[in-house]
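dude i think i finally got it to work??
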Amino acid sequence: MKPVNWGILGAAKFAREQMGPAIHAARGARLGALATSDAAKAEPFRDFCPDLVVHGSYEALLADPAIDAVYIPLPNHLHVPWALKALAAGKHVLCEKPLAMTLAEVDALIAARDASGLLAAEAYMIVHHPQWQRVRDWIAAGEIGRIEHADAHFSYDNRADPGNVRNKVEMGGGGIRDVGVYTYSSVRFATGAEPVGLTSRIRRENGVDVWAEVAGEFAGPGGRFTYTGRTSMRLFPRQEVVFQGERGLIRLTAPFNPLVFGEARIEMSRSGQPDLVERFPGARQYVLQVEAFGRTVREGARYPWTLEDARGTQAMIEMVFASEV
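look at this
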């Protein structure tokens, strides 16, 4: 079966280090083109993809008839505008998170997807990782009983890089949009629950949120439970998610960036039973994401993170900002 031929809009560091190599390595995928106005920025991509076609503009890549799908790693405020242009050009779209800046933008993208018949999705890679699929299955099976509380933490420190787009309010920067998508939607994905009441405390520098604590309640198929989530761009790196049930506890120690932050590992503790530890040393979530996207494009397989799922993330982000005290 013909592979999906991918193009990348922009030579972003993340595309160079993670998603470009993932597309190149994925089964059923081929990295065919890159759009950048700076030819020197294309050279690191050619190190692992020598036959890469380089276009001098995003428009030129979208006009390339050889390209089937476009990956968009642009600054946050440009995600939806270029995703809409890509769909209009007949390309499938995988867009970096956060998908959009507002719910209205997500709705516009959903309408464009439906009108085009193409696949458009947020690049929320953790749902493709087997550790998260296992946690979701354990919770659904009642392995730790009814969920009573969830904690989610994601912090790093980029204060030394003021020019980073994450530190620029006009580009949609801030920790809530950058890593809140993980502390919020990992819990949504694993439990099937949605937030029903939140209170947030937020600290800002130059208009950009650099620390946030969110507390409240979720409600879903298993009932209601309390939630605490913390994000920061000014703290020592930390990643951890804990689900506490009436009969046990599940902890993920590298929930978001395994192979970078640490080993993908799940620990489950239950009353009267030995602790269970599962490791996933070889799982490459970005490669798995590209392969899942390709199966949907080629075979019509269900994609595990729809625009509607991403819309729930944006709704929670807006709830967080609206609930600040």
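Residues 16 and 107 are 30 Å apart (CA to CA).
im so relieved honestly
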